[in-house]
Amino acid sequence: MAKASQDISLSSIRGSRANGKTRNNKESAAKSRPKAGRRSALTEAEIREIFRRFHAESPEPKGELQYVNPYTLLIAVVLSAQATDAGVNKATPALFKIANTPQKMLALGEDKLRDYIKTIGLYRTKAKNVIALSKRLVDEFGGKVPDDRDVLETLPGVGRKTANVVMNIAFGHPTMAVDTHVFRVANRTGLSQGTTPLAVEADLVRVIPPEYALHAHHWLILHGRYVCKARKPECWRCLINDICRYPDKTPAP
Which of 97, 118, 126, 179 is catalytic? Predict the structure, then answer.
């Protein structure tokens, strides 16, 4: 945790209002931009301080899904829809030992794939999608995962959040994958007032300082998963408690 003595004064933070200008989004693959929600409740200086503290606590945050290459990352993220990362991680190590490329996944086949992932929710549908997307990767992309978000979103079982995760982790683009944790943290803190994942994504891409953009979604996801929890946020140990706009902060136990 960052100590209070290391933080810049909140009076100086709150003395500067955000200018509301659209920041450049560095992801070259983006061809369409989601519509932003209302203006952030936080000042530009407050937002910068939030991410300065996240960076100070964890300079190189990592996702928790296990993978060995861009293809297995894509598969792990597809399998994680409406499931936990921990649950996916229990199933995928054995699977990826024998099928870590789309060609090997097609050779394994849908029936055997189901046996490997049957502990994951919606495994039958996910098995169909994994086989279908693997076939497209082989037929259209030489077995490679494309470095293009718009193309990724056309693959079976791949939505915008999954595409953003792959673009960020596999290819180093500063994309913002908005899951339930990011959506909750963004709205509670005042980083966004968006009512849809697309609106929250647009707000975050607009307001997060460029130097923090690459790791921002990891910081927000992990903060939501372990501190800013859905039912009972642990506000007493939150390193941005003094900046956060959430009115119903949980007192220390």
Answer: 179
Distance between CA 42 and CA 22 in Å, rounded?
15
Q: Quick check: 77 and 65 in contact, CB under 8 A?
A: yes
Catalytic residue, chosen from 161, 203, 229, 232, is 161
Q: How far apart are CA 143 and CA 102, in angstroms?
A: 6
d(CA 199, CA 218): 18
C-alpha 19/C-alpha 4 separation (Å) is 27
- Kindly list the structural domains of the chain, giving each domain's residue range(s) and its CATH number in brackets, ordered by start: 70-171 (1.10.340.30)
161 annotated active-site? yes
Question: Is-above-0.85 flag for pTM?
Answer: no
Cβ neighbours of residue 80 closer than 8 Å, sequence gap 6 or more:
65, 88
CB 119 within 8 A of CB 93: no
Contacts of residue 168, defined as CB under 8 A and 6 or more positions apart, other chains included, come to: 174, 175, 177, 214, 217
Phi-psi region for residue 247, left (φ > 0), alpha (ψ -120 to 50) or beta?
alpha
Q: Residue 179 catalytic?
A: yes
pLDDT per position as a tens digit, 189-233: 999 999 999 999 999 999 999 999 999 999 999 999 999 999 999
DSSP at 209: -
What is residue 34's predicted lDDT score, i.e. its pLDDT?
58
> What tens digit of pLDDT does each residue of 152-171 get?
999 999 999 999 999 999 99
